[in-house]
Protein 1
Amino acid sequence: MKKLRSMLTVVILFFATGFIVNAQNEEVTLIKNVNIFDGVNEQLLEGYDVLVVKNLIKKIEKDIKIAKSYEIDVKTGGLKERPGGYLNDFSTSGDQVVMVYEPEKNEKKEVNVNVIDGAGRTLMPGLIDAHWHTTYAYTPAPVLFLNQGDMPEVAIRSITGAEETLLRGFTTVRDPGGNPFAIKKLIDSGEYPGHRILPSGPFMSPNSGHADYNDRLDTPKDKRFLNYWERNMMAMTSDGVAEVQLRTRDILKYGATQIKICTGGGVASLYDPLDVSEYSASEVKAAVEEATNYNTYVHSHVYTDEGVRSSVENGVMCIEHGFFASEATLKLMKEKGAWISLQPVALEDMKWDDPISQAKFEQIIEGIDYVFRTAKKVGVNIAVGKDHLFSAETADQQSEYVVRLGKWFTPYEALKIYTSENARLLEMSGPRHPYQEGPLGVVKEGAYADLIMVDGNPLENLELVGNPAKNFVMIMKDGKVYKNTISE
């Protein structure tokens, strides 16, 4: 991976004292001559420039001029002509030296501006995956199910995988189950490259439910003890209102931005057929109450129409999967402002060693086309993600899932879902949302500088998104350029 980072230190001038010290690294990037898909509107903004200061988009205009005779306000992105300065605008890519200033600190810094000439390419927001398991996606199933590995192995596989995910253009994910907390910490600090994470922490079910990976011979379970993966916050079982409350509080204490429960059977789990209901109404309400007390929400894994309806009636605000939800239930979800988080799964995506899981997988495929068509028709809030599990080799299907939306949506609609719509779902976390400096999923002034430059127009050809290695010529997250192949 090529990292194009301008080393932005030079000098801070303290006018009151004249004292000179080294500045912390800061970055200013000017992206010239791009056609912008802003994540919201179908019409491209053609021939615009985008100025990024630190980690935010500060200005979007045509023909932004920066030269040694200008200063950049790092708070507002505004340009201020220096008295007596000599105008020396540029037209080519490369580093340009300017002054940036922070009026409230009464200081100035001389920095290099990283200039990137888009040459008419398309600039769009970084992609957001609404259902990506950071610690399950790249970890082989035997490590987890057969205890052939441990948490350090999971962490190593996951943090290296996070960089690969970022280089597919996915700058943010909502993580609906697992323990990515340390990974998130190291990525957010800038110590390791990777995507942003809104973690649900361990997904939670009752005993015999989707999160129960205890051996059958360990039944009845001794509730005084948690198994290895529960202790390491990868999955969690809880039974009864009191224990649901306790474990929900534990997960929130650990740093979850929302709570994930399971109210129906799953494919990977062995003890719960797809048709079963998991958790009583009082248990679901207990999780919802605790999440609400924490100013966030509950989302739930469930496939059946009955399970979806019951979950929403008891306060769940986002349904994961819901492939067998009826039109009436989807209308109820719309009335309540709830979301359905879908995955355009195909039969060839996974082959399960366990015949029970394979049979359940084939069963859920039958509902995919209906739920996408009906959800779009009803107008319920739709989010989309990959729900990738257990294979580094096939993780690049994540990009293919964006392209598959073309079966039900126009390229514009598909890309809007994977940018500003998925970002709207993330806002359900309220004050627990960890990224509060600006909006995600859009290209607008004040937004996070999470950007992709595409060689071509994905609003005309959605297939371009399916090959990010070739077609994403620049990837920026949090104002830092992680890929730039424009000059190659």
Protein 2
Amino acid sequence: MESPHPRALCDSAPPRTGVHVLTNTPTTVRWLTSARPTGTTWGVPWPRGVVPGGSSFGLRRDDSAGVPVQSWVTATWPDGSVKWSAHAMSPQPDPSPSYQLVPGGAPTQPDTPVTVTTSGAGVVVDTGVVTWTVDRVGSVLLSSASRDGQVVARDVRLTSLWQAEPTADDGGSAVREELSGRVESVTVEQEGPIRAVLLLEGRHTSDGDTRGGRGPWLPFSVRLYFYAGSDDVRVVHTVIWDGAAEQDFLAGLGLRADVPMRDEPHDRHVRLAGPAGADHRPGFHTEAVRGITGLRRDPGEQFRAAQVDGRPCGPVQDWDTAVSQRAHLIPTWSDWTLEQPSADGFTLRKRTAQDTGWVTIPASTRAAGYAYAGGVSGGLAIGLRDFWKAHPTRLDIRGAASDTATVTAWMWSPSAPAMDLRFYHDGLGQDTFAEQLEGLEITYEDYEPGFGDPHGVARTHELVLRAYAATPPNDELASHAAALNDPPLLVPSPARLHSAGVFGDWAPADRSTPERAAIEDRLDFLVDFYITQQEQRRWYGFWHYGDVMHTYDPDRHQWRYDVGGYAWDNSELSPDLWLWYQFLRTGHPHVFRLAEAMTRHTGEVDVYHLGRWAGLGSRHNVQHWGCSCKQLRISNAAYRRFFYYLTADERTGDLMREQASAERTFVAIDPARKVRGDVYTPDPSALSVGLGTDWGALAAGWLTEWERTGDDAVRDKLLATMEDIGTLPNGFLTGDARLDLTTGRLDVTREQIAVSHLSAVFGLVEVCSELISLTRGTSLEVPEFEEAWLQYCRLYLASAEEQESKLGLRLRGISLIQAHSRLTAYAAAHDGDPELAERAWEAFHHDIGDQLNTNPLQRTAQWSTTRIDGSGVLTPVDEAPFVSTNDASQYGLAAIQNLALIPDHLR
């Protein structure tokens, strides 16, 4: 193998000259929204050279009292110092409004740490409150949960329903097969003292005779999160679709647990959460298995009050004899079902036994997705985050009148039609590449037979299991349901995040001048607009929640949900980046939640995680996987890094690791095969890699893996290709180059000039800025790469005469002027050139129709919505036809980066 980039031939751990700990400079972190009664994990960035690797961290409250904390490093700078640290804190009975994180400080130890004990049979995790037992293999995730020496729950398991045909239009009666999630491996990823994490992996399979049925399928991963002193376990569940869309129809997917019911029926309780209020705290439907309220005869007020509160009702013989002597005649209710088929309403019903009819219970709109079954001697709650947003969902309680109740949180409700993932149209008349390219001219859809395939896409859900010593008061349940749907997170201020020098060119929001304030208003307008559109257009559902639509149809007053490539956005032109940068600079929690949901969606649903396209994403389409354009620009690790570093979320780490060797995807498919103009078979020694959307995504994956793991091989791939781009006669203007997988090098002899307006709008700007800043002034510096990038930045929006003077020709394909203004701004800031800075702001404001524009102090009426109601729309909506997601994303990124790079030149 050819020698890697020569500058990469340095020690894997560079000398830490000048690295020091600022022990007297604590970092303040505050709650994103509110403190919640559950464990918390968060991330903090540090400036280069400030905190050496291996440093300890202390945590203290506002009153200076020490708080037990567990810390670890999630990324390092090239000098070995800490770039990002992660921290975990147990549930706080009296949380402080903020905390101070002290590098170099001695961490306070918990009174009772979480312990992890492994054996050949399994793993036992003891939080000091609840002992959870995990078997190494088999059809259960958690075999038991014990509190105070008593088993509260058993056999926590995954269940699914499969059928070989879609649900008929009239409901039909398709045969369903029940399968169980069988665990094949258990890995202890972290083991205290504050936080323990277990990773369970396996597949769904039938426990019985599978002849004629479905064999093993649906690979899953489940992470279990335990915190010292906590009575709950957080469950992060990911399922990968590996079926055949024409033959496999998922009719149900759930997490299920058994709950021993030891108490008398009148001391057994069911609680089901309804809609949440402004503070995320829901009200509860409060029931007993055998109710003693509302009877013709009164057992006594104190007994009725006790049952409603979930307290023991007292000995039956103490009740009024008119009731106590007839207690055996009161029906016992065994089963409850809360069904959320859409974002707009749930139904609720119960019955006394499996062979009896259902009784309907008055219900409401949007359930919080939290249910409890148990009694005065203990019970279990199960919850599913974003319950109504990820519909169709369901909560079941079965057998509450028997010795064992079963609770199930359905991520796909068995009451809904079976999941049908077949392609949405027949593709007639699009048999050849030429015909398929014609489709782009009419519906903007890149169709190709067999490519609208979901095989390999995934979905992640967050759930919780909580073991109670007794039926809790409704206020306590409400707090726990709020923690499920609004999980606690500690975050540094925008100024503190910015001071660390992470994520390239951005700065905290600044309204110090009328011009800056006007742009800030528009950035706020765009975020608020998409939040409103998500609600009004009901961008919710199992596969959809977190994504937004691409383009608007003002004639129908509707986003183009049914028109080819104009429907779901799938990260087109980087809305992920826009939202995360806007959060970094504002700290607004509603921006965080919008970006979080997008990261969860785009990283899972829009990307293939196994199969022939593993590692690639799908371009925007009516179905998230429908487009034949499978590219790294969608699976880009740059879109996931923010959420990972701010939360230390391990599943997001998995997604980024998938991109560490993404260059191998070019062997599977040529992303430019339809527009290349020649017949091209991928050659591992000469893979065609675009220097914009392709290399930018590769670089983001390599950079992230390098800073997370210190992997020299990944670093070498990154630095080598940076040098090669700088060596190309025309640098980034070359457009694409040939990559040799064996050497990891680009062919530097290519002399063409080919510019695409898309090259820089999928994270290339951001990753180049980071890489140059990261390596500049170090032994890893690649000056020729920096010059190649500056050449691109200076010339893309240069005058035709200047382009011809520098290159011998005028560049073609120049568009997205506003988006590219930030390239000119980058060159202006680097060169200290006020003329370039003026040109950048002029490009940002110049109205040529391919961006969101207008002068920041004029024509503000355009930046508003219009209310549309009446008979021409299904429901009243607020529309802004001038907004598309392409334009909004690039306006946001250009505004943010221009304000950071050349703020003083804004007029």
